[in-house]
Specification:
single chain, mainly alpha, 78% helix, globular
Length: 476
């Protein structure tokens, strides 16, 4: 096993530290669920948003991408600020902001206003989510931490699937005539309940000697992520103008400058935004590498299947959402068994999960090829169940692996690095696989575009299976 950073550690509250109760864990897990649900909940609402607000395709993409990009670029900063000012305090502030920005989204009078509110909602999520992992790391140990991390992973995975299901149900239900607005307004009462619970149940943790914020690192990380994600999300709809290519060309340079600045700060004994020395932790480094293709494939699939069912088969939002309900159910049931399986088989559970996920996506591709344009819940059922089982054997375990060696003194930084990697990869999946599907559909038809995209996802799954073989056999 490798060791942690040679840089002086940030000292946390002396032992024995605060302990996270069951109610507190439930509260922070609710805070973890909301941002991920909202990343996916709009997928099935886009057609009605287009109809009501007369939004162009680039603007509709910004409804999704604006949230995801703001979320991704601010996550690490959110973790660092929480370490400094108090994780409970920032969790509560982020939750309040999330509720208010959700209300702004639900009341948006125009497409431009909705995009601005979604960007603000992404920023609120970035303030809230890193505090969840940091609080778990700082207030639990041993088996309690392993159980809490398993529940976090299960919550995250289930939220990503359930968000799309819930979006379809809410849009079709048209509660009180709100239509698509209900997918945002539903967050408001949930956020109020979460705020009340957080005040009563979540303990405060923070660093005793907080490091100053890394201004150059923050700016360079933001510019690097923007230079990659913005052109990929907007390029296809905008016709790939010159600025998109210039932006993509700038990404490698900005990424290198970010690494160089962070490495210099690390060697000087300061605490950079993302300490390169943290990447010396074997389980964190290898887990993050595997997180990238997994998240790209997952989010790309969720976006593409929603578009294919609604625009290709002209099914209702409810049907498009409920088509993935079996996947959510299979994920939930399997995730409950995950800790026992890991205790017995170690991280080879992740390899088995990748193989099952690949089988499930293959079954979905076969069903699309053979039954289109009659692809529905029944036809998707076998593949969705098998894929859901496979995903549940990967994602919760992967979260545990990535953070298993991160010391409590760097809980906020470690959680921020992991969630930034995940969120940036989710946004990248929508941008890449979504762009591939939308580019192919006018030329080869919806069916062939869907099948081709699923085959590309199978390649990403094969990469995750290969990478899983390099994970440490046991989780610390």
């Amino acid at each position: 096993m490798t060791t942690t950073s040679p840089a002086p550690p940030v000292v946390t509250a002396p032992a024995p530290g605060p302990s996270l109760s069951g109610a507190g864990l439930l509260t922070v897990l609710l805070g973890a669920a909301l941002p991920l649900i909202d990343f996916f909940i709009v997928n099935v609402a886009l057609p009605t948003i287009d109809h009501d607000l007369h939004a162009s395709e680039p603007v509709l993409e910004l409804v999704v991408a604006g949230y995801g990009i703001a979320y991704a670029v601010l996550l690490v900063l959110g973790g660092r600020v929480g370490d400094a000012v108090g994780r409970r305090r920032l969790f509560i502030g982020g939750m309040a902001a999330f509720g208010l920005t959700s209300l702004a989204c639900g009341l948006a009078p125009s497409a431009g206003t909705l995009v601005a509110a979604r960007i603000a909602q992404g920023a609120a999520s970035a303030a809230m989510l890193p505090q969840v992992l940091a609080t778990i790391q700082a207030t639990t140990t041993g088996q309690r931490r392993a159980k809490a991390m398993s529940l976090y992973g299960a919550t995250a995975g289930l939220s990503m699937v359930a968000g799309q299901v819930l979006g379809g149900v809410l849009v079709s239900a048209d509660l009180f005539g709100t239509g698509w607005r209900s997918v945002f307004l539903v967050n408001v009462p949930v956020a109020v309940v979460a705020l009340i619970l957080a005040v009563r149940t979540v303990p405060e943790t923070r660093s005793v000697r907080p490091e100053p914020l890394d201004g150059p690192g923050t700016v360079l990380l933001t510019l690097a992520l923007l230079s990659l994600l913005v052109p990929l999300t907007e390029g296809q709809a905008s016709g790939w103008p010159l600025w998109t290519w210039l932006s993509l060309a700038a990404f490698p340079l900005l990424a290198y400058l970010f690494y160089a600045v962070e490495a210099r700060a690390d060697r000087a004994g300061r605490t950079p935004l993302i300490p390169p020395s943290l990447l010396r932790l074997t389980s964190l480094r290898r887990g993050l590498v595997m997180m990238v293709p997994f998240s790209i494939g997952f989010s790309g699939f969720m976006f593409v299947i929603a578009v294919a069912l609604q625009q290709g088969e002209r099914v209702a939002a409810t049907t498009a959402g409920l088509a993935l309900a079996p996947m959510a159910g299979a994920f939930f049931v399997t995730s409950l068994l995950g800790p026992r399986l890991v205790a017995r088989w170690g991280t080879r559970v992740v390899t088995a999960g990748g193989l099952l996920q690949g089988l499930g996506i293959g079954l979905i591709a076969l069903a699309a090829w053979r039954t289109w344009p009659d692809l529905g819940i029944v036809q998707l059922l076998p593949g969705a169940v098998v894929a859901g089982i496979g995903q549940a054997l990967q994602l919760p375990v992967l979260f545990r692996i990535i953070l298993s060696e991160v010391p409590a003194t760097r809980a906020g930084v470690g959680g921020g690095v992991m969630t930034t990697t995940q969120q940036a990869s989710l946004a990248l999946g929508v941008a890449t696989l979504g762009t591939l599907f939308l580019s192919l559909a006018p030329h080869v038809g919806m069916r062939d575009a869907l099948v081709t995209t699923l085959v590309v996802q199978l390649v990403a799954i094969a990469v995750t299976v290969a990478l899983s073989l390099r994970l440490p056999r046991r989780i610390a």
